[in-house]
């Protein structure tokens, strides 16, 4: 009897529809997505720069990656703050409960240039390829 319940529970937990619903439940609705992303990236970099910032970003994938329980996004960011050199690089974010994005990691373009294998270790292959292309096009002005 116990084995039957365990099998039923595993089937319910591992069923793709159940997993997708829980996963998708974290993604902010379309109208809020960009606003929340801008807000949370700005807050993250304001702490790093110790003041107000101007942040621009571009998502590196069309949709979220499935990393753990939360939808994960990769974005190329350019950040400027008065009196500080501009910063460029890749940020890794998780969408959480449709209310906010959590920055998981940030790798500056300078770090990625110094360690040519870093992109492959940190990001999925398609993102790493996009990062390499952007590194070739970027200005190299992120000396922070």
Summary keywords:
144 residues, 5-stranded antiparallel sheet, 6 helices, globular, alpha+beta
Which regions have little confidence, pLDDT < 50, spanning 5+ residues? 4-19
Tell how many strands the DSSP assignment holds: 5
Helix count? 6
- Beta-strand share of residues: 25-35%
Helical proportion, percent range = 40-55%
How far apart the termini lie comes to 62 Å
Which term fits the overall shape?
globular
The total tally of domains equals 1
Provide mean pLDDT, rounded. Answer: 84
Radius of gyration: 18 Å
Task: Characterise the protein shown here.
It is built from 6 helices and 5 strands; from the N terminus they run αααβββββααα. The chain has one domain (2-137). The protein is of the alpha+beta class. The longest helix has 20 residues, at 30-49. It has helices at residues 2-14, 16-24, 30-49, 109-114, 118-122, 125-137, and strands spanning 54-59, 65-67, 70-81, 84-96, 100-108.
């Amino acid at each position: 009897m116990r084995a039957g319940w365990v099998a039923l529970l595993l089937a319910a937990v591992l069923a793709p529809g159940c997993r997708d619903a829980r996963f998708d439940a974290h993604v902010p609705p379309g109208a809020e997505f960009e606003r929340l992303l801008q807000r949370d990236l700005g807050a993250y970099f304001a702490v790093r720069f110790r003041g107000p910032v101007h942040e621009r970003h571009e998502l590196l994938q069309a949709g979220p990656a499935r990393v753990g329980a939360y939808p994960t996004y990769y974005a190329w960011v350019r950040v400027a703050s008065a009196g500080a050199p501009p910063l460029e690089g890749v940020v890794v974010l998780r969408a959480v409960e449709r209310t906010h994005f959590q920055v998981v990691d940030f790798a500056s373009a300078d770090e990625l240039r110094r360690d040519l294998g870093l992109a492959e270790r940190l990001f999925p292959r398609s993102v790493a390829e996009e990062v390499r292309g952007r590194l070739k096009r970027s200005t190299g002005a992120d000396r922070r």
